[in-house]
Design goal:
The chain is of the alpha+beta class. The chain has a five-stranded mixed sheet with strand order 2-4-5-7-6. Strands 1-3 form a two-stranded antiparallel sheet.
Length: about 400
Amino acid sequence: MSMSVEQPLWRALTAYRALTAVYAVAIAVVARDSYERPQVAFGYLAVLLVWTLATLPRFTGAARCTRPFLAVDVGLALAGILLTPLADGAGRHAADGPTLPSIWTAGAVLACALKGGWRWAAAASALVGAANLAQRGEASPNTLHNVLLVWVAAIAIGYVVEVARASERTLARALEIQAATRERERLARDIHDGVLQVLAMVQRRGTAVGGEAAELGRLAGEQEAALRRLITQGPVPEPRPAEPSGSAAPRDDERPQDLMALLGRYADARVTLSGPGTPVELAPHAARETAAAVGAALDNVRTHAGPGARAWVLVEDEPDRVLVSVRDEGPGIAEGRLTEAAEEGRLGVAQSIRGRLRDLGGTAELVSVPGQGTEVELTVPKQDEDGREAATGRRDPAQAGEGTQ
């Protein structure tokens, strides 16, 4: 589909070509007595006029202006310039008179600019400039001025067209994303009002009845959690293929990663994940280490609060930091228990959680009241003290498995 910005330029070029072809013929008619070989001049202009009128339908858009067609168009302009001395003799062309195609030549150059951008425009205008200098035999100030004017104007228009095309593609992509988002929101409302309500009811009734119904309720709860995660966060993106050797594209370990996508694998019937509706992007290493720390905290919940304990993960995206809290409904941690665990060599909290956050320049605070559960609050800065992305250090991935106190 034609661009809203580009299409008016093609229409203007169509009118320009028709008017300048008539103008070139009018100049020749007025100066017919000064031509040394008028048959050459009027023969060329007849071809030019017929070609212009016959090809007007092609200039409705870039699709029909193929590369061979534009090459013939520019070739016709060059032929007219080089035939001028033959038709004019040593008369007007030596005194900076107009060439046979006159300003029609600019239309051929501008067509290249609209079709191929500033590079095509530069090549076409360079050929026209060289032909003008060749037919004059010398670089007079007036000739240089005209050549430079066409060259600059063509390149500028070609660059504007390239920018317009890029903007059009960006806008089209944004509209696609907006339409997809609206459709997803509509589906989410329908699913929330129907399917999720039924799954939640099955989970409650199955748990209350017990027996085989309890297992059915558990499965319904897991499906509810997975479906809720899908409609709120979207599908987890597939791994990107490796870039070809020598490619300048960013590597996977250089791209920001969405923390919500990494934490999504922990959400199930017993773990509720809540966060912003938009991606929470962190430096790749920071995102992975934060997710590993959350995994270690959830391991502690399963180990010390029981496999059926509920946990809640809340993600808050602030301008300069990301806050992640992990709260459970377990029995809490007795006073002094963490110190005893560290002395016994069980460093789940000290290393898997606090150690990771310390390496990222953040903090991990643990609040626990016996009988009222435990809450772990992780603070991850988005930048270090020098204004660079935080978490440039590396840790052994094997530490991600540490999850006991």
